[in-house]
Amino acid sequence: MEPSNRFTVLLGGELSVTPRLRAQVAGSRVIAADAGLKHAAKLGLEAELWVGDFDSAPAELQAQHGQIPRQMHPADKDRTDGEIAIDEAISRGAADLVLAGGLGGQTDHALGHLALLLALARRGIGAFATSGTEEAYPLIADTTLPLPLPPGSRLSLIAFSDLDGLSIAGVRWPLTNAQVSHGSTRTLSNVVTDGARISLTAGSAILVAYPAGG
Question: Is residue 214 scored above 90 in pLDDT?
């Protein structure tokens, strides 16, 4: 069997286990970043690598998972443990990434993960971040983002720049070829009616979704 090119990267933010999340990570390979390994057991996952400076992984967690290969990094470094884990996944063939625990927790890290999503999208690598109840997807120019969200799901598009040619279909308040300025709240709190689809001709944004039904 060919190894999976979907990787789950376990990060230290919040995580609620839902049937949707279990389906999203099923069959994926797993790399944990520091305290993110705490999520592995409740997801029924086994990490093939554990990376970080281990400043936030409690001694008990480290003792419980001594069998997992570790990649140690100094505390004084120019990347987060999460970015190191993502880069390691890509070096192992990842073409699709689930950043589990990539939302919630520290605001600086959560915002950093959103910026990483956009950078990955520009490299042609599919990725999204999730807390189990909340998901974040990157949207860049000249792309269409189909979202497998059930009807009744709430979604918000947050502009990371001025947006041009924004179209949102399959929602209660659709848009067609719209312009949205950076900082506008016009695209917050929409609702999926039938298979949301979003496209953009210029700019970059993050789509935050709250899937109905878990």
Answer: no
